[in-house]
Amino acid sequence: MDPLAESQAQTESSTIRQILARPAVEIDGVGRRWEDALTRLGIRTAGDLLFNFPRDYLDLSDERLIADLEEGELQTIRGSVAEVGTTSSGFGKARVSVLVQDASGHLRATWFNQPFMGKRFQKGQAVLFAAKPKRRGRMWEMSHPTVTWLATEEATSAGEKMLPVYGLTDGISQYAMRKIAGTAVDQLAAVPAEVFAEDLLAKYDLLPLGAALVAIHRPDDPQALVRARRRFIFQELFVLQLALAIRRSQQQSLQAPELPASAKIEARIRRLLPFELTTSQDAALAEVAADMALSRPMNRLLQGDVGSGKTIVALCAMLVTVAHGHQAALMAPTEILARQHADTLAGLLAASRVRFAVLAGGTAKREREQLIDDIASGQIDIVFGTHAIIQDDVRFKSLGLIVIDEQHKFGVRQRAALRHEQHSPHYLVMTATPIPRTVTMTLFGDLDVSTLQELPTGRQPMNTYLVEPPREARWWAFVRDRLREGRQAFVVAPLVDESETVAAPSVAAAFEALTNGELEMFRVALLHGRMSAAEKQEVMTAFREGETQVLVSTTVVEVGVDVANASVMTIAGAERFGLAQLHQLRGRVGRGSHAGFCGVLLGEIGEEGRQRLEAFASSTDGFALAEIDFDLRGPGDLFGTQQHGLPPLRIANLRRDREMLEEARREAQLLVASDPGLCHPSHEKIRSQVLLRYGQALDLGDVG
Ligand code: ADP
Ligand code: MG
User: In whole angstroms, what is the distance from residue 246 CA to residue 76 CA?
Assistant: First the structure.
């Protein structure tokens, strides 16, 4: 583009910005009286109003004149209220009857036992009624129809087939909102500049922005609405995928130390391992090693089902790093887990010279200061820890690799923080929650993925039972048998204390009941998140060493805890957990040479909850369970609401729109490959969308 045209384009876009940034109430025909209500809805500017899409639509495509109604099918009529009456139908039950008329005749709508309905109609008022009509003598009747109250102007059919329904707040009615939105669409739909290039619109058959704005607020028919929504869904996914692709390309331009795993290094590390790696572990390690041999930072997600042996892959990568004279750090979501990983490494290293330490929230001040000095001077090769690792005062001499265990527990932002603290280390994240592909593509779209497909051989099968209340005594007898055989047991409940508002089991109550009842002859300990780090550590150590036989715990044991002698787990209040989370919990047992048993105490549970738990009991495939969870409850429950740290999608739905997600991803990758900073003037519009929405969350900086 020549400089003149470019500056003209910029002027245009800044004028557009000004128009859309004007207060919404200054649009002709809106007015100050709506200011408070609109503000409460988060609508301040003209642009906000224009992009405040309806949350639903009334389909009036089967709207008819009363005279044209037919029996038995759902239809809509539009008329004005001619008469409202309430009669008693005996036994004190009220029958509300509303007579409406249109140009062709009359219809009676009736409600039984809802006397308040009588008060909601006034003579002369315009309404829409939708129901399956019945003929009663010469009169059409609708029983309990769906009602839409209309503004008088809307009384005669405007020919629209779909009526938008907006989110509301106190002080604004549906028809006022409809009118205001309509005004904005009339005046402004053509204003915002198209973000997509012509050829992209054509390739995916997308409605241009202006037409899509009109159609999403005022669709002519369901097909028009589908097309409009499709355009905005694509746009939302495209912007997200662009953000991820940009982040990825930014990372690839960073410099990292080259850490190839030479044959000698590899042989030395393999000699330390107490077992043969599985085929998957070998393959994953090869992928990791190939990445680390390059001078751009690795960005890899290592996923695998519970117990598939991710830790050892990470430890190998850390040892490769140390072999090259660089440092490695492993960040875990809990101190328990950080210490466990350190113990595992200690078990491998025996007489080696590798120096490592644990840095966590519970580390004493003096000790912490010493550690920080040693990390900075390079005295320590490997650090295990919690977020304490990313505090400002922690500086590494030369950090070559960061491993993050149980990634889903950390936000994307934390990843960013950790990364920018240091000059670019290699980066490996592990998650034990198997992630459906759709989700890896979105929330983790900037990472390469390695998957551990199989479990190490020699694993005992996992047996899961749903325990009905009358069979609980038998279940506890079974648990006692395992304990007498020398095994250990977990008991998990969702809450710490009994709560008045939530009817769910607590560990406090379970501990109380078990130590005075079913398990009174055994050594039982309590563990929950409100205990201090030192207390937790003490309880965990006692359990690991077998001093305690039973651990009654909240989900602090959920991730990663590895006690091979524990073989039986009891879960109370299971309906409050996601399937992926239950699978995680169950993965705490059956890890050693003993078969694992998991008893889910059903308590009082609804049909839907029971079905989910039946799915859980009948499958031991974490990926399959994650897919079920995802289908039933969406990605939020897999990762905890918003835990991934990205702003929520507004119109796209990862489950429903899988196909479009793939397309958007492909296009985004192509675009970023050709113009990594989206610097070309024709990309300015989409670039500002990307920055607006994801600039901060993904730490994209200035992009170009
Ligand atoms: P997760 O993938 O859930 O983090 P871990 O890394 O904690 O699993 O490994 C689970 C258990 O399996 C550990 O006790 C570990 O020592 C063991 N393990 C890992 N890899 C192998 C292997 N190749 N052969 C036998 N046991 C293994
Ligand atoms: Mg693990």
Answer: 49
pLDDT, tens digit, for every residue of 16-69? Answer: 778 889 999 999 989 899 999 999 999 999 999 999 999 988 877 788 899 999
d(CA 17, CA 692): 13
User: Two tokens at 409?
Assistant: 């527990």
Among the atoms of ligand 1, which is closest to the Cα of residue 564? 14
Query: d(Cα 179, Cα 418) in Å, to the nearest integer?
Result: 49
Is the CB of 436 within 6 Å of ligand 1?
Answer: no
What is the C-alpha separation between 602 and 531, in angstroms, rounded?
28
Q: Which residues pair with 524 in a beta bridge?
A: 550
Q: Which of 249, 635, 288, 576 is nearest to 428 (CA)?
A: 288
The atom number, within ligand 1, closest to the CA of 306 reads: 3
Question: Is residue 336 lining ligand 1, measured as CB closer than 6 Å?
Answer: no
696, 697, 698, 701: CA torsion to nearest 10 = 10
Q: Using a 6 Å cutoff on CB, does residue 515 contact ligand 1?
A: no
CA distance 82 to 124: 6
Among 272, 305, 306, 312, name the best residue to mutate to test ligand 1's pocket (greatest count of ligand atoms within 8 A of Cβ). Answer: 312
The preferred substitution site among 269, 270, 272, 275 for testing ligand 1, maximizing ligand atoms within 8 Å of CB, is: 275
Q: What is the DSSP string of 39-65?
A: HHTT--BHHHHHT---SEEEE-TTEE-
- As a whole number of angstroms, the distance between CA 376 and CA 381 comes to 10
Task: Give the residue whose CA is nearest to atom 25 of ligand 1.
Answer: 456
Q: What is the pLDDT of residues 551-608, one digit of tens each?
A: 999 887 665 577 889 999 999 988 888 888 888 889 888 877 788 999 999 988 888 8
SS3 label, residue 180:
helix
Answer yes or no: is the C-beta of 311 below 6 A from any ligand 1 atom. yes
Q: Read off the tokens for 597.
A: 């048993």
The angle formed by the CA atoms of residues 271, 277 and 283, to the nearest 5 degrees, is 115
Residue 310 Cβ inside 6 Å of ligand 1? The answer reads yes
Ligand 1 atom 17: residue of nearest CA: 309
pLDDT in tens, 651-680: 888 778 888 988 999 999 999 999 998 999
Ligand 1 within 6 A of CB of 559: no
Q: Is 543 exposed, middle or buried (0-12, 13-18, 19+ CB in 10 A)?
A: buried
Angle at Cα 408 formed by Cα 407 and Cα 414, nearest 5°?
65
Residue 148 CA, ligand 2 centroid: distance in Å: 54
Cut 0.85: pTM above it: no
> CB–CB of 356/342 below 8 Å?
yes
Rounded distance, CA 185 to CA 165, Å?
15
| Ligand nearest to the CA of residue 593, numbered in listed order | 1
Q: How far is the CA of 261 from the centre of ligand 2 (A)?
A: 23
Q: Sort 471 into a burial class: Cβ within 10 Å, 0-12 / 13-18 / 19+.
A: middle
Structure tokens at 448: 């390469």
**pLDDT of the residue at 673:** 93
User: Does ligand 1 come within 6 angstroms of the Cβ of 326?
Assistant: no
